[in-house]
Specification:
The complex is a heterodimer of chains A (228) and B (243). Chain A contains seven helices and ten strands. With 228 residues, chain A is an alpha/beta fold. In chain A, a hairpin with a 2-residue loop joins strand 4 and strand 5. Chain A is globular and about 45 Å long. With 243 residues, chain B is mainly α. The chains are: A alpha/beta (228), B mainly alpha (243). Chains A and B meet through helix 7 of A and helix 8 and helix 9 of B.
Amino acid sequence: MSTALESRNVVLSFGETPALRGATVTVATGEILAVMGPSGSGKSTLLHCLAGILVPQSGEIVFGGRRVDTLTEDERSRLRRDHCGFVFQTGQLVPELTAEENVALPLLLGGLRRDKALAQARPWLERLGLEGLGARRSGELSGGQAQRVALARGLVARPEVLFADEPTGSLDSLTGEHVMDLLVDSARAEGATVVVVTHDARVAAYADRTVIVRDGKVTSLAPEPVLS
Amino acid sequence: MQGWGPWVPDEGIKRSTSLIGHPWPPPVQARENRGFGPTTRKIEEADTPIQRHTLRVYTRRIHPAYGTGMSVPLTLLGLLEREPSHGYDLKRDYDTFFGRGRPLSFGQVYATLGRLSRDGKVVMDEVSPGEGPERKRYVITEAGATEVDSWLAEPVEAEPHLQTVLFAKVVLALMLERPAEQYLDAQRAKHLGRMRELTELRRTGGLVDGLLADHGLFHLEADLRWIDTTSARLDALAKEVRR
């Protein structure tokens, strides 16, 4: 088993407010890791650091054996575009674009031609039970449908790591379960590593392992995997 | 310390005949026929996932060491670890912290202390004759203290309705200045492990399996919320229970 990504003693404050105070966590390739913790504990900040969106003030972020925290903004953007997928709680679809175009967005940003990008996006809509909805805009989709579009967009570029921040937070229990079923099945089929931030134990129950973030530090509820 | 697992009726139990002529305790078969209570059927012998799940969920008991339900003996042992006590004081402390409307009878306290004494978990260090009846002071032994330690550190089997046991463990851990937060984390891990099993059952089984799994999942989720809330209030709780 190899390491997909890790944070080593990461420290980050927002002004005077400390968010992470030496957060250390390792995620194995193909692992589904749930990150739980009280509100304001730093779990979303940890996810943003692991994804190279935020840069810690000290400590290291290592993605596929490569330091991320020392990269430039452009290099980190490229890394995210080429290797990462994202699913957030709400408000993530571009309202002017159709569902199909939203799914194709990461491919378009990666430089793929529009017709090819859309051709790759369509099967994902079918795979997630959204056939026939490709031409709808986000305002014409239910919460569960919009979240499935977001999931398709997160996976369409076949990322090595999928980052999900409260992916079912705005959904009812049954719809949330359906989205998590699809997320886990798709990620496993693609061999993707998943880091999912959640306050919901039922979401965490889909993960292979859970860590708790408390006061900016990480506690693992199970032994860390033995990694090469 | 005895392990956890399906409760198996003690076939060696001595049966007597009640006043109305029925054997007591009733034979296991009679209880099975009513559809309630424990069963001797083993989980591996179940034919379907539903039966396996049902047997797994409904045949467990809280702690088999001294009977069913809340572990009064271990809670009394925990109280004795603070300081040697008379039975009367133990009952008062138990009722104050753990009784909550269900006080122990003196008979139960002394019978439990008698069994603990028989098992080498407590000894009596003095008998003080006074004006009233003799008052025996009970002192926990090494074996008793070891049992309390093991009990506190061991996560409870992830089942619904375990708050009473968990609550007792948390309060005692704080009283005895043990790492209550670590114990709660171990319990979280146990609960999440069980929720993983049930989630898998829900995902791979049929609708009936799924609904059964959901029942367990929602109860375990409620326990986890209680664990989260308690975890956030440990400092305040510690101040309240430490004398």
